[in-house]
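If you are new to this repository, start here. Below is one unmodified record pulled from the training split, so you can see the exact layout before writing a loader.
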Amino acid sequence: MFKHQHPYAPFIQEDTKKLIVGTLPPPRFSTGDLLEKDVDFCYGSYYNSLWLFIDKIHALNLRYDNSQEAIDERKQFLMEHKIGVCDIVESAERDKMDASDLGMQNIVLRDIIGYLQKYPNIDTLLFTGGNSKNGPEYFFRRHIKEYGLKLNVISNEVPRIHEFELKVVTKDNEEPHSSEISQSLRSFRNDKRTIKTVSLTSGSGAANISISRLPLYQQLKAKNKDFNTFDFRVMQYREFL
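And here is the target side for that same chain:
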């Protein structure tokens, strides 16, 4: 049994507004056995394609190798666009050394709600996959049940959009009530903010079949025989990234 530990801490800044949420990178990112075109950073697998979509949308001309420069390019883009990355799976166990979400067992989730509380500027979660078993939306739905929260449908069209109300607990410093109290007491105020979630089509090759069945894709393909699933994802991701 392979213990698949997420190799990267969440990448979030104080001014982050959007958070990309996936599951786990392929096991080779945890073992350090990277391929030549892999980047040692979030979504660094050349075959995942997320950075290829972003590169196409923004004409970044990114590097695809194991260099520090390739990592810095991606970090710079995320910071400039106030985008963070916080995959929802902290660790899992696998019988096989592959990247299949369905192959994950004994899964430990990260506290996404806790990060939303810590970083109050985040207003959108971008799931890199839908509600299929062991996908990011699937895990998030399980996660928020612990907080008594649920997703409300805004649009059922691909990419599906939901929202939920997050109670935000803020703390205000107060003066001590007596000289015997050496530290400030804190009063709590409950506010709410609306968080939007967007379930983007997964960048994995396995999602190509589901894309090919979508009426919109079929319509666009009929108009342009060269239109493909990569183009479809770029078109979809462009609105949110």
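Two things worth knowing about this chain: The mean pLDDT is 87. Residues 68-80 form the longest helix (13 residues).
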